[in-house]
Amino acid sequence: MSSYETLIVETHETTRLIRLNRPQALNALNAQLMDELSAALDAAEHDPAIHCIVITGSERAFAAGADIKEMATKSYADVYGEDFITKNWEKASQIRKPVIAAVAGYALGGGCELAMMCDFIIAAENAKFGQPEITIGVSPGAGGTQRLTRFIGKAKAMDMVLTGRMMDAAEAERVGLVSRLVPADKLIEEALAAAKTIGGMSLNAVMLTKEMVNAAYETPLSQGVKLERRLFHSLFAFDDQKEGMAAFIEKRKPAFKGR
Known about the structure:
By secondary structure, the protein is of the alpha/beta class. Helices cover 45% and strands 16% of the residues.
């Protein structure tokens, strides 16, 4: 496994745990970290032994945002010419294997956007979410106005992106931004347990089901249902479908092989 300067990467059975590690900057997302995160996610995607990925930070901060010092002097020509954000931020939203965000502390700006790129968020009770870009004269730029609005609705999203206020973990769970709340000292344990559960399923079924859910945000209902039906049909081409149904009938645990 590659070594990284801004990440701590571990393997737990079929789970790849990726910890953002810039403690001196509250895990602010700079170019090096995002390049390394993209590489780590790509490596996990192509490792057949890995079935699920968990991204986390520290107890104090998942990620306090993009690195303002790195971008403050950039011009329009700079950000457009280098394809800023697009070139190395989208990997978490593009890979087929499931990605869980385990969030404690601050998930602000780019940190909140990175968490929303993941398939779901497990949050510690001390987590705080926000898109405060408006307070420094810009807007969210890594999907904050789009994903946040889809996840929590227009009124809440407008409130957050126009005032820059933070949302605590209880409110985030209440409005559907996070899937569950856990005590801070149990966050990684709970996230790894969820990943282990997913890792015990048929990987083909997991990836295709993830594709179905993601399509619900981007297609009309009739097209989404049609896609779901076709992908459901396709699962009958895999040995795992035969094994899963046989195990159910025989009242035993299935032994999925990912084929």
